[in-house]
Amino acid sequence: MDILANIWAALPLVFSFDVMLAMVLGTTVGIAVGALPGLSATMGIAVLIPLTFAMSPLVALGMIAGIYNGAMYGGSIPAILLRIPGTPAGIATVFDGYEMARQGRARAALDISLTSSAIGSAVSAIALLLVAPPLAAVALKFGPADYFWLAMFGMMTVAVLISDNPAKGFLSACFGLVIGLVGIDSMTGTERFTFDQLNLLSGINIIVLLTGLYAIPPAVGLLLGQSDVDTSRLNFKGVKERIDWASLVPVWIRSSAIGLFIGLIPALGGNVAAILAWNEQRRVSKSPNYGKGAPDGLAAPECANNADTAATLIPALTLGVPGNAVAAVILGAMLVHGLKPGPELFRDNATTVYGFMLTMLITSGLMYVIGKLGARAFVNVLRLPPLLLGPMILALTTVGVYAVQNSMFDVWLMLGFGLIGFAMERMSIPTAPAVLAVILGPMAEASFRRALLISGGEYGYLFSSAISITLVVLIVLMLLTPVVRHIRARQRRTQEELPSGS
């Protein structure tokens, strides 16, 4: 009953003019951002956050929801038409989507992609509404020691799983931990890593970090001409094909379930969900054209990667542990607007958080309408010259970051983080663990010190509850994952070398 009451209370706010306008604008921008190779939902939201500083929380979150959902669909446009995934989650879309476009079935491919994306997003948003509140109620039972291990689990998971090289993931997380320590210690009042700079006494603004790491590197890449888009290959012609929508219903059900499951597991993301759904559909499909332009081979990954969107927010909103880089950026946006992720969010800001979950559902419908009406316009977004787009992104980020605190120090800091982010990308060091560590690091530190204060310095208190022990076991298993992966890889190499040596 509380869920229904909170949804009912949030509905008038969600359907207000300013929130609806924000959702429409966010969805439109999101599709356009997703359609541009090299840009992503993470970058789009990172650019937007400074611009939403003066907005009310729900207006800002409505726009963010639109960008998130829109970008996940937008990535399929260049994947289908150019064989270039607009977003990482669009990789599996290429397999059958581009083949359909080559056969002159681009319109049908875009229609299937749009419909599948909208259905996946809607299912994910409904799951967020139904699953997140009960999970938040369970999370209220967590103590300081439990929160410490939860934060450690979140950081370890992303650091280990988000990169093929766990050492690089841990390096990124350590960088984020150091950034999170900058400022005045809340418990002792001493300065840490401020280097006598008054601008650093309050710490490094999360907006500055997010914008620098996620918005500047793609802009620098565009300025350097690092774009693989060949607009001469664009093809949106062809007769309208009749699509057997009924045959895709089982595909949508199966792929939505895969996307939801993957979304609940930190660090996996839409690209994993899309590839798993494509493989599963290939396993059950009897079509000889699979991988050669089969509609179900396109519907499966598009539905799965969009079913992942709101699902990744379930642990983010309820436990404060983001499932991927986009969720981490959204948590940063919520912190900017005074909303502290975690179980208290549902107790102290119920109307706003339920309103945000509703915007995730509504923008999935808006995505379908806007995508249908503006298909040709979004295809033309691909024709924007990279040398024009790069300066536009830099100008928006500079103005937005400066407006937060009217500080040029923040602008220079953002540009510095941008160069660091660009170097990290060049060295294949993931940036998501750094952002996650900045958010979860202070939480882990405060919870650890609070636990020791409660226990009088007894470290055994950290292992005194079933929740803590469970999380410790999960952390150990997570750390063993790369070891097991390495052992299996060595066994495979040994087996491959045996025939040649015998």
Automatic annotation (TrEMBL):
**Segments forming domain DUF112:** 20-436
Q: Which InterPro entries match?
A: DUF112_TM
What keywords were assigned to this record?
A: Membrane, Transmembrane, Transmembrane helix
Q: What is this protein called?
A: C4-dicarboxylate ABC transporter permease
Residue ranges crossing the lipid bilayer per the database entry: 7-33, 45-68, 80-98, 118-140, 147-163, 169-188, 200-224, 257-278, 316-339, 351-370, 382-402, 460-484
Membrane recorded as keyword? yes
Q: Does the keyword Transmembrane apply?
A: yes
